[in-house]
Amino acid sequence: MSESGAQVLARTEARRCLTDIEPRLFPGNGGPDHGEVVEVCGPERTGKTELLYHLLCRCVLPKSAGGLEVDVMFVDTDYSLDMFRLVSIIDSRLTRALSPSAGSDEEVLRSCLSRLLVVHCSSSSQLLLTLHFLENSFSSRPGLALLLIDSISAFYWLDRCEGGASFSKQEEKLSKCSELLGRLLRDYRITVFATCHAIRRIHSGLSSSSFSSSDSDRPYLCRSWQHLVTHRLLCSRQASTAGGSKEQRMRQIFTVHCSSSTGTKAHRISSFHVTDGGVDFT
């Protein structure tokens, strides 16, 4: 298939590098570079989706409000995207950052939302078709620098069921998605963040209560996907303490352990809590 001049330009033009997307998460200059993938993993209710909202807002906000002013594609496989929550976070950050002379709140908010594209998928087959469709978006929008997938593991059990006893059939669809995603990363130099749910493994001879957290945090998706991942953000929730004020006891703290498979294999541990205005690092 032949490319138009605009498509060639979009594919070859240097997109916004997102190594500085959130310095408090990544060690030094260890943030994701062009063509890299960050897997955000952990059990339920450990702040993974809120972290995605934080990164999304950081990208679509104007530079005058501390943002990067880049376009974002959000692929929602869990049908859990809360637009009211997202708009509330963006609005809160604009209110804190901008002076009244910067323009009307509604005008700036609309400008931020214009940088966001959202698609929904309900199966691995739909995800594969969506990734094919996204190539047109990356070709026509040089400002589209970030792809968010929430979550990449949404169809894991469905694919295992449909694949029957064949391990290769169980992983076939996600493997194809990963291969196509790898081509998009190479050709369009985008950055990808994807959430991945922790999985409970029941080993032979062990009860369901005897599994360890390290078991549930081990990578389990197909090798094609694992080979794409360059950074891993492991999310967890700190146990509430009995001491301190009522406000401190009510404020849940989440911890993120960042590890990288690139360069020096640097790592970093950070923590945050969730407010009405989004993620607040501590």
UniProtKB/TrEMBL annotation:
Domain called RecA family profile: residue spans: 10-198
Gene Ontology biological-process entries: DNA strand invasion; double-strand break repair via homologous recombination
One GO MF term: four-way junction DNA binding
Source superkingdom: Eukaryota
Pfam families, A to Z: Rad51
GO-annotated cellular components: centrosome; Rad51B-Rad51C-Rad51D-XRCC2 complex; replication fork
Protein name (Swiss-Prot/TrEMBL): DNA repair XRCC2
Organism ancestry: Eukaryota, Metazoa, Chordata, Craniata, Vertebrata
